[in-house]
Design brief:
Elements: H1 2-9, H2 16-27, H3 37-44, H4 50-63, H5 71-83, H6 92-108, H7 115-127, H8 131-143, H9 149-161, H10 165-174, H11 180-192, H12 196-208, H13 215-228, H14 231-244, H15 253-265, H16 269-278, H17 286-298, H18 302-314, H19 321-334, H20 337-351, H21 357-369, H22 373-382, H23 389-402, H24 405-417, H25 423-435, H26 439-451, E1 460-465, E2 468-473, H27 482-498, H28 505-516
Antiparallel strand pairs: 1-2
């Protein structure tokens, strides 16, 4: 009886006659005598169906006049409201009306002062990015000692999602008590903002504070190590996991995938493969396979990456959009044009994944690397969506590599029409002209850059030395060991020349000495 009533009540559209039918069914049962029945119905829909729980609430009030929501009711409703995000809700304004309506009802029934309800309201406002309302309620609750670690963490996360990292850190530093969730929320905020070094430092501080890191913190710090190329710190985290597991790194599939990704990004591909192979078959999901395929491809082991993609298919793991990007990239680097075309065609046909602009960009790159510039141009023209800078950039790179100046000029024109002609495009066009000894055209491009005030973004690279990640920006000579670095560059130049490579590294070293002497 309860299940049938619930299924009917949760229908998107329900007529008055149907509501009366449900009411009659409930009257003939003993359910109406159970004062916990409405809350049990709401709770049964969470966390899987938050929108259905919100739809059910007004219908329960309509057919059960004696139903008076309590603190448990509001806890369920606010949890549902926090979990209901676009496209379930039409707009941010709709979200604000929803949470504000629950807030008003809680105030009318005098439940807004209850600690769970107050924290639920803060969390619901914060989850929808309604920072002003969340902060106002938080400050009111703080003055009346109704906040707990959940409300602090909810607001911290909201500030981080809004890009207000300074405010998020200020809240974190002001927390009277921090849980593992609070630490991981702040750490994840740093990773999302690209502040990877801060994320690593925070993880170290977390351990010094005696807090046991949860899965989110471990995944976050491993992602930060991978982004920094900080292999030693990543190994230390792995060793920490092993020590915690009594000599064996007892981790779930999510953390193991993060380890695979970290080792691959730090250049330790064999260790990444060892972690991958040590995982149980049921632990290897699409994200694990994608991380390993990406790592193999990035390190030039492209045929292994394609073989692993075939193994993934044989194991019944369905590839996602990112997997296809990685394997198409591997095909391009390996020069496997026919295999790339086969995989591209199979995306929609076999897996129901419609190719996006990134996949078209990969296919253009595959064709361009193979010198099939006209076919690559045809792919761009036949795309069902507007090409972006990645797609046209791949075609422009191919034009530069194969010396097709005329098609390159055409691609630059397309980029200009789309407003995507950034400094790199102009530099590449200039290099293309220089490669064809068209020096007048080189000067024209340079003058155009000066007239449009187009500045070349300096390149940068990062290397880990003694566990410290050091960043180098083109043209920057401020590193305290610059003379030693240039000496090593000169040695490297000599070694490469012994192998027949025509290098310019020695020229860079001589230029540095001239700059240093003021000549």
């Amino acid at each position: 009886m309860a299940t049938a009533a619930l299924q009917l009540l949760c229908r998107p559209a329900l007529s008055g006659a149907q509501l009366r039918q449900v009411h009659a069914q409930l009257l003939t049962s003993s359910l109406l005598a159970d004062r916990f029945f409405p809350n049990e119905l709401l709770r049964s829909l969470l966390p899987a169906h938050p929108l259905r729980a919100l739809r059910l609430f007004p219908r329960l009030r309509r057919i059960l006049p004696s139903f008076r929501p309590n603190n448990y009711t509001f806890s369920f409703l606010l949890t549902a409201a926090a979990a209901t995000a676009p496209p379930s809700l039409d707009s941010p304004a709709h979200a604000q009306r929803l949470v504000s309506s629950l807030h008003a009802l809680a105030a009318v029934l005098a439940w807004d002062a209850h600690v769970y309800v107050a924290n639920g309201l803060i969390h619901a406002y914060a989850s929808h990015g309604l920072l002003r309302a969340a902060r106002r309620l938080f400050d009111e609750s703080l003055s009346s000692c109704r906040t707990d670690v959940c409300s602090w963490t909810s607001l911290l996360t909201a500030y981080a999602n809004a890009g207000q990292l300074h405010e998020a850190r200020a809240l974190f530093d002001g927390m009277p008590r921090r849980s593992d969730v609070s630490w991981s929320a702040m750490l994840s905020a740093y990773v999302a903002a690209g502040s990877f070094a801060d994320a690593v430092y925070l993880f170290e501080e977390m351990l010094r504070s005696g807090v046991r890191p949860n899965r989110a913190a471990l995944v976050g710090v491993l992602a930060a190590c991978g982004a920094l190329g900080a292999l030693e710190q990543g190994r230390w985290v792995h060793a920490f996991l092993s020590a915690r597991g009594g000599g064996h790194a007892i981790v779930d599939g999510v953390v193991a995938t993060a380890l695979v990704d970290m080792y691959a990004k730090c250049g330790s591909l064999d260790t990444a493969r060892q972690v991958f192979d040590a995982m149980a078959a049921e632990q290897r999901d699409v994200f694990t396979y994608t991380a390993m395929i990406s790592g193999l491809s990035d390190h030039g082991r492209c045929r292994e990456a394609i073989d692993l993609f075939a193994q993934m298919q044989a194991q019944g793991v369905r590839p996602n959009e990112v997997t296809f990007i990685c394997v198409l990239t591997a095909c391009g680097r390996a020069g496997l044009v026919d295999r790339a075309k086969e995989i591209f065609r199979g995306m929609a046909k076999v897996y129901g994944v419609e190719p996006g602009v990134e996949h078209y960009g990969c296919l253009v790159d595959v064709l361009g690397r193979a010198g099939l510039l006209r076919e690559a141009q045809d792919v761009v023209r036949a795309m069902p969506m507007r090409p972006d800078s990645y797609v046209l950039g791949a075609l422009l790179n191919a034009c530069t590599a194969h010396g097709d100046v005329e098609l390159g000029k055409q691609v630059v024109g397309w980029l200009a029409e789309l407003g995507l002609d950034h400094s790199g495009v102009h530099v590449q066009l200039s290099n293309m002209y220089a490669g064809s000894s068209k020096w007048e055209d080189v000067l024209k491009v340079r003058r155009t850059m000066e007239e449009k005030n187009v500045l070349k973004v300096p390149g940068c690279s990062m290397v880990e030395v003694d566990g410290v990640a050091c960043e180098f920006v083109a043209g920057d000579r401020s590193h305290p060991c610059m003379r030693e670095i240039m000496s090593a560059v000169r040695d490297l130049d000599r070694e490469l020349r012994l192998f027949g490579h025509d290098c310019y590294l020695d020229e860079f070293a001589r230029r540095f000495e001239l700059e240093s002497s003021g000549q």
